[in-house]
Write a structure and sequence with these properties.
The chain is an all-beta fold and 331 residues long. Helices cover 0% and strands 34% of the residues. It contains no helices and 19 strands. The strands form five sheets. Strands 11, 12, 14, 17 and 19 form a five-stranded antiparallel β-sheet that branches. The two termini are 43 Å apart.
């Protein structure tokens, strides 16, 4: 801190902050599994297919295919059992998958039609005493139905309407309705369950009114093997698109994500601009950097077409590696 010349008041002091760098980090052991999910009869790619990998200890890892039917997932080295499923198709048989550090394993799936397992839980229906042409569906209160989310999620009531004038809340283990807010439940406190009820229909409030926190989860790391969320490094003047839906538990209903952007080993001075895929390139940068340092910055990123984020590399020449960690999403 330093005082302005000729000024003796405490208000005359100015504070200057110098640059700093992160200490070298040890990259955890990771490998990549990737492949495609196609229709066994027509060989056409299946978009939005769910791919689940379970290790020997029972921990599961999930991802989904993009519009081309391709998927990719970074995993710790080890042996896994992989399955694929999609709406209107019979689930695949379990397939053994072995992941090595720095390696890339290919596992493709071909699903036959027949309407097997669906990628999301179905609602519980109440049987009717008489036979009708179609089952009568009766919504029931939220129940602890298992789901494939990494952390417990908030379960609003079927007719919950967020008040327009209330401040934006964050997700907590329990919440109590305020006057003018949710009033559809018979009790004043709603207890969250490990699943998100498919009948939630918010009817008021701007998009992104609810924020869901995540344990910081790494989605993109271009230092890893080549893939949708891995290498190669970003190239000067080029743009890459990264699909974020289903990665780290980000749901298809997410409108934007809270992230930490890190630039590693840039070869020249430059900047990165992150923006929703399908939109025009903004004039403002997300993070600026120069060679010889590691630089990080926080950002809120709207999601573009199919939950994708575009990254433009503004450098006169050379390359840089790019890391994206997610800490939550807005819905």
């Amino acid at each position: 801190a330093a005082s302005l010349p000729g000024c003796n008041s405490e208000r005359c002091w100015q504070t200057r902050i110098g640059s700093f760098r992160f200490p070298s980090c040890v990259t955890p052991a990771r490998g990549t599994v990737q492949g495609t999910v196609t229709d066994a009869g027509t060989f056409a790619p299946i978009s939005g297919a769910r791919v689940v990998l379970v290790d020997g200890g029972g921990a599961s890892y999930e991802t989904a295919t993009n519009a081309s039917g391709a998927y990719s997932r970074l995993l710790p080295p080890g042996s896994y059992t992989a399955t694929a499923s999609a709406t209107g198709y019979t689930s695949s048989a379990p397939a053994p998958v072995s992941i090595s550090n720095g390696g890339s394993t290919v596992q493709n799936f071909a699903l036959g039609s027949g309407g097997g397992a669906t990628p999301t839980p179905t609602r519980t229906s109440t049987p009717t005493p008489t036979r009708t042409p179609t089952p009568t569906f009766t919504p029931v209160p939220p129940s602890p139905t298992p789901t494939r989310t990494s952390t417990p999620t908030r379960t609003p009531t079927p007719t919950f309407t967020p008040p327009l004038a209330s401040p934006t809340p964050t997700r907590t283990p329990t919440w109590t309705p305020t006057p003018g807010g949710p009033t559809a439940t018979p009790t004043p406190t709603v207890t969250p369950t490990p699943t998100q009820t498919p009948t939630v229909t918010p009817t008021a409030g701007p998009p992104g009114a609810w924020f869901y926190t995540l344990t910081p989860c790494r989605v993109v790391d271009t230092r890893g093997p080549d893939g949708l969320l891995g290498g190669p490094s970003l190239v000067a003047g080029a743009t890459r698109n990264f699909p974020l839906f289903e990665a780290c538990g980000i749901p298809l209903t997410a409108k934007s994500v809270a992230v930490n952007v890190t630039v590693v080993d840039p070869t020249a001075l430059g900047h990165l601009t992150l923006y929703p895929t399908g939109s025009d390139l903004p004039l403002a940068s997300t993070i600026n950097f120069r060679s010889g340092i590691v630089r990080a910055n926080n950002a809120i990123l709207p999601l573009g077409v199919s939950g994708q984020v575009s990254v433009f590399c503004g450098m006169p020449s050379g390359t840089t590696d790019f890391i994206l960690d997610v800490t939550g999403w807005f819905e």
